[in-house]
Amino acid sequence: MRTYIYHIIAVVLFVTLGITSCIEPPLHLPGQNMELQIPQVETDLEVIWDVDVDFQTDWYYGWDLKDDSIWGSIGYTMPTSFEVHRYYKGDDPYAKHTTDEAFSIRSTRFRRYFQFGYYDMLFYSDIDSKDGTQVLVLNETLDSVTATTTGTRGISRSILEHSRSNEADPSGVIGLLNQPEIFYSAYPENIYISRDLSDYEFDPVENIYIKHIETKLRPLVYIYLVQFILYNNEDGRIKGINGNAALSSMASSTNVNTGHTGYKPALIYFNTRLKKNQEVNGQKCDIIGGKLTTFGLCDNEPFTRSGALYTGSRSNLRNYLYYDLIWKDGQVKTYEFDVTDQCHAQAHGGILTVWIDCSKLTPPDPLPSGTGSLFVPTVEDYDEVFWEIEI
């Protein structure tokens, strides 16, 4: 996991009445006798990398050029452009937001005039979608911004009902959602633009007064690498895969301001790829692998530099991986595996591993009925899903 830190440098240009020369700090500090105009504030965004998730140890699937072309690189990339929301609160740090000045920046530095008083500011990175089609949906209000994704087709009513049957509260599962694109946010609150020069640091090189503000730019979407280790398949009973997989009980939304995830669970669909004739711990096997992006666990705290633990209140939710296997007779069956403990131990991304003893798998029902894939419905079998997004 890479954490970014904003170093916001406020460069305040003070002007005295009747004085046009440069301001020297020893003469004017602490500044009680100065009349100050509205300051111009410059923000300088410095990115600091902090890797906290190990994507190497116990990752057997690997990541070749074909994987990279399908899903992109494994890690988190540095954002290059941002959306900014600026909320002015006057002299009351507890005031509610009444105005929202929104603008875009295409670099890590920009200048704006600030009134004296308190500000909240929301930064979030623009979305860089691999295929140019953004699935992330942002719902904005004066108080907060909520992110969710579009729904996806390609799931039958049976797998949704099957997922709901694993939950203590089956009515909460809202259906299958697309994976969100990776993006980041920072929400510094109560930034105080003061009239007192003693609150600023003088830069003798630039001949300006500087205010330093620091906040963290955190990821709001987490990466899970998923691998299925198939062993004892020497007789070839498992012929291959169709690539369908899904992870249940993941958050359907997140608060962009706070990073706290929503409480409504959803299935997140992702694709997989099979690599045959691999070796893990000296044993011959086949490995199915894929990359999954998600808001994370339901009702969960955001990632911090110290690595916040799972503290969600929805402890009754279980996380299941659903995946399709194709048997040697061509039949397809969907299997499930409980990865709840793995998800809770890696609440902000990591590696999910399923060990599959092919000799103990229950085969599909005999033809002509067959078991079939839960991911490929007929047209009339689509489940129409509606849900409300928390604002």
From TrEMBL:
<protein>
    <recommendedName>
        <fullName>DUF5119 domain-containing protein</fullName>
    </recommendedName>
</protein>
